[in-house]
Design goal:
It is built from ten helices and no strands. It is an all-alpha fold. It has two domains: about 160 residues, no CATH class; about 170 residues, no CATH class. The chain starts with a helix and ends in a 5-residue tail after the last helix. Its main location: membrane. Pathway: Porphyrin-containing compound metabolism. Keywords: Cell membrane, Disulfide bond, Heme biosynthesis, Iron, Membrane, Metal-binding, Oxidoreductase, Transmembrane, Transmembrane helix.
Length: about 325
Amino acid sequence: MTRFRLNLITICLAFVVITLGAFVRLSDAGLGCPDWPGCYGHLDVPTAEADVAAANERFSHRPVEAPKAWKEMIHRYAAGTLGLLILAMALLTLKRSSSAHQQKALPWVLLVLVIFQALLGMWTVTLLLKPLIVTAHLLGGMATFALLGWCLFREGALFEGYRTAMRRGLRITAGTALALLVGQIFLGAWTSTNYAAMACPDFPTCQTYWWPPTDWSTAFTLWHGLGINYEYGILDSVPRATIHWAHRLGAVAITIAMLGLAALLWRQGRADHRWRGMALTLIAAVVLQVSIGVSVVVFHLPLPVAVAHNGGAALLLLTLMAINHAVWKARDHV
């Protein structure tokens, strides 16, 4: 198997892991297995009557709920497989290659990241869905996906033929848009992990207000201490609405930034039409993500739509990674 094909398979699995993680979180199955890495002391979900009885006795505070437990374990199996593929990518760097595009350091960075992700997955369970840990786990998954994309673009020698004078500010705008998107992904994760997705059940207003009552200090207190069960959230309605409102404001800001970047890419396309393809792809990704986000509220958090919102964020992130790779890889025409 070529490095490029292995990278492609790995990034596809990373996308599956992200969506599975969202499905587990949004279906309230994050504590479907109260221990780690197994489930009630098993490598799979206990189903035999004697095993279930023993599990219920050992974990009396959380009896076996097989549907939730299977969701959690399937996510863990997929994440474990992803880790093995990334290990294979790292080991392949030890093999000599004549390719000038072979990645040396990045697969090892990814391996360290996925190991840290495993620790965050463990802490997610042992610290009872602490929002800071769950948010960090989601961000780590997105970072893994983004770096796999960067590795894929470099390994495939994409954008090698782009030779054009770069418009002033395009590279800075692309980098700024990426930074803003990372911030918006954090806000989305913080909204989800604090169970604030329906804190504003109306749209475009929030609880009938154009600017709802807010409590920014409580809403963005990152650490509430240990020993607290955060399942279903611990915040009151005002802090939750504040978090949700912040995510909406972030969506407005990121949409403006993305459209500005798309406009610059379109103008760049006067020299090479391929830049206009990137602009159209970016616009499509933004429109899709905004539409899904609005649908989450309007249709009151249907699970498939909410999961798709996480997947849309990942695809938008990958699109921006591709654009940033292109604008920095393209050679200025002299």
